[in-house]
């Protein structure tokens, strides 16, 4: 077994398992390597790395930063940064603050739509987890307002939908800078969510490569085999590292299974070495 899952979430962002639990699950899934990539938060990274050492699995520092992008959703993955970098931590804390301010606003919007929901209920269901849209979705499901997560996001919580609230984000270029300044390497997550036609995607990737982009997420559960081949070709042409992951969120995302990176499986251990070599620190 030398497969690695380079995209996963814990209770530090909107996943349902703690960093330690995610590491144990990765071991049980037979993975050789794991990156915890919580949204805008590296608070679980050190714990996960320590757990990895105990359990005999390579855990590399990871993060997923939501960046401003009008056309679609732009998530930037960072690997091999220094988790103790204070400036990086502060810049991420600013995003966490923006996220925290956003949640009560979502509750208000849902109330205005005539839905019987309070922010206290949302906090209660989140428990120790950082409140996020999946918790709103769970309440909408439990009240019978929607039948599943998809419907909750399609009707209410997704970008541009009835109860959507925008929040502060860094520009993609700023996210690149933050990751690189702390010694990390920059990878574009699930490229299809940028919502760009091929020619525009290619042009953008070329521009971003000059700014430090080193990889794209080719292996991903929502990618079809055709998409994987397509992004694989793009990566080969542009000299980008082909990463992949499950985007595991535990019970907070339907059908996400740790170690399931889509129809062509998860990337191999070599990818971790490629990322390490490309990181600004080259230490890991
Ligand atoms: Zn993402
Ligand atoms: Zn993710």
Describe what you observe in this structure.
- By secondary structure, the protein is an alpha/beta fold.
- It has two domains: 4-91 and 171-278, TIM Barrel (Alpha-Beta Barrel); 98-157, DNA polymerase, domain 1 (Orthogonal Bundle).
- It is 43% helix and 12% strand.
- The chain has ten helices and eight strands.
- It has helices spanning 19-28, 45-55, 86-112, 119-126, 133-142, 149-157, 172-181, 198-210, 225-238, 270-278; strands spanning 4-5, 33-35, 58-60, 62-67, 74-79, 185-188, 213-219, 241-244.
- Strands 4-5-6-7-8 form a five-stranded mixed sheet. It has a three-stranded parallel sheet with strand order 1-2-3, with helices on one face.
- α1 (19-28) packs parallel to α2 (45-55) and α5 (133-142) crosses α6.
- The longest helix has 27 residues, at 86-112.
- The model has no long low-confidence stretch (mean pLDDT 94).
- Bound molecules: zinc ion (2 copies).
- One zinc ion (ZN) is lined by residues 64, 75, 189-190.
List keywords for this structure.
284 residues, alpha/beta, TIM Barrel, DNA polymerase, domain 1, five-stranded mixed sheet, three-stranded parallel sheet, binds zinc ion
Short account of what is shown:
The chain is an alpha/beta fold and 284 residues long. 43% of the residues lie in helices and 12% in strands. It has two domains: 4-91 and 171-278, TIM Barrel, CATH 3.20.20; 98-157, DNA polymerase, domain 1 (Orthogonal Bundle), CATH 1.10.150.650.
């Amino acid at each position: 077994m030398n497969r690695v899952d380079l995209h996963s979430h814990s209770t530090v962002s909107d996943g349902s398992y703690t960093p330690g639990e995610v590491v144990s699950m990765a071991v049980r899934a037979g993975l050789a390597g794991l990156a915890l990539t919580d949204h805008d938060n590296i608070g679980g990274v050190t714990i996960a790395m320590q757990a990895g050492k105990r359990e005999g699995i390579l855990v590399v520092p990871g993060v997923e930063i939501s960046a401003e992008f009008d056309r679609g959703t732009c998530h930037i993955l960072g690997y091999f940064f220094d988790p103790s970098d204070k400036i990086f931590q502060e810049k991420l804390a600013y995003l966490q603050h923006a996220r925290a301010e956003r949640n009560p606003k979502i509750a208000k919007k849902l109330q205005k739509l005539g839905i019987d929901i309070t922010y206290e209920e949302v906090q209660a269901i989140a428990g120790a987890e950082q409140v996020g849209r999946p918790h709103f979705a769970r309440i909408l499901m439990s009240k019978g307002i929607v039948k599943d997560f998809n419907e909750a996001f399609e009707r209410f919580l997704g970008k541009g939908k009835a109860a959507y609230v925008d929040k502060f984000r860094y520009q993609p270029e700023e996210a690149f800078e933050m990751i690189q300044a702390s010694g990390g390497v920059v990878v574009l997550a699930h490229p299809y969510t940028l919502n760009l036609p091929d020619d525009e995607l290619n042009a953008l990737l070329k521009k971003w490569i000059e700014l430090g982009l080193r990889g794209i997420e080719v292996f991903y559960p929502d990618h079809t085999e055709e998409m994987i081949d397509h992004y694989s070709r793009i990566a080969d042409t542009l000299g980008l590292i082909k990463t992949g992951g499950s985007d595991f969120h535990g019970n907070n995302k339907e059908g996400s299974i740790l170690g399931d990176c889509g129809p062509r499986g998860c990337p191999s251990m070599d990818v971790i070495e490629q990322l390490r070599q490309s990181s600004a620190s080259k230490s890991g």
